[in-house]
Amino acid sequence: MFDKLKEKLGSFKRVLGGAIEEKEKEAIKAEPAKAEAVKTEAAVEKELPKTPEPAAKAPEKIGIFDKIKAAVFEQEFIIDEGSLKDHLWELEIALLESDVALPVAEKIVESVKNELVGSRRKIGSDTGKIVETAIKNAISKVISVDSFDFDDFIKKAKKPVSIVFVGVNGTGKTTTVAKMAERFIAQGYSVVIAAADTFRAGAIEQIDRHAENLGVKIIKHQEGADPAAIVYDAVQLAKAKHKDIVLADTAGRMHTNVNLMDQLKKVCRVNQPDLIIFVDEAVAGNDAVERAKLFNNAVPFNGSILTKADADSKGGAAISISYTTGKPILFLGVGQTYKDLVKFEPQWLLARLFE
Ligand SMILES: Nc1nc2c(ncn2[C@@H]2O[C@H](COP(=O)(O)OP(=O)(O)O)[C@@H](O)[C@H]2O)c(=O)[nH]1
Ligand SMILES: [Mg+2]
User: How far, in Å, is the centroid of ligand 1 from the Cα of 302?
Assistant: First the structure.
């Protein structure tokens, strides 16, 4: 997962770490006077007559070289913009090549620059670590858009909680509905599925199979039926039977298809779901981010799920989608089985990127 991005960030860390190290060497060279002063001070000390100390209190012997080293290492050096400029440009290119959206790449580079330029660092610090921390902080800012805790929301929400999944075709909505059902069941909730993709041939059978595998009640009408009515029926059933969660699978649609987008708006207007979740595939990179923006305009959603992260080496969508939409990533799909769903935690992603 995100292998190419990891590689790029790793090599950036090494190169920029090296550049900062050069700066550090210059600082050491520019300050021989301080080392000289220590040398003189040590020489004077040597001349002074020594009063013998009691053995137990004998001070630890500090050699002249230790003193010089300590003096140099106590110094700080300042990272200036000039020594970073070209490298920051390279970072921006690396992010863009990884499908990070332009405004997001710019924001990351800006944060890295602000954290590093003008900062005072102790000589002898781990320069690679300095760069890693700056990048981690910068990415953290763009992926932690709000602190929405999905599990806590579900726990506290009035039941049944209705969730509608939206997005374009083939991105993994139906599979994700099944994965979410499995996750809710494991947490002890009861689930009803609404087969609200009445548009694509075979869609009802597909979700029906999942419901059967999972032992979950499903509400389905015939192909071509009104999806708003199906979600409505599912919620009514959940209310009557005291089910906790309604998961509505909807038809994939392009944001440019006005009729289908109007249909989706109707599903949401009629049913007022507790949550709308946008599903797209991480592998779609910038396309996924653009689609998210347009879906969010039509049916403002609460968060996204990025599927197929297992097959995504670039990571650009995962880094860009929250900042672009202002809505958090809730889960990542990481495979084709029901268990292949991980709750998205910014710290988890950051650790993956530098492991
Ligand atoms: N590798 C991988 N494949 C996935 C993931 N999620 C879904 N898929 C596959 O993507 C394809 C389309 O999924 P589907 O749920 O039918 O998409 P929908 O059209 O949006 O409902 C199927 O072959 C799924 O098995 C995932 O997280 N990882
Ligand atoms: Mg589907």
Answer: 21
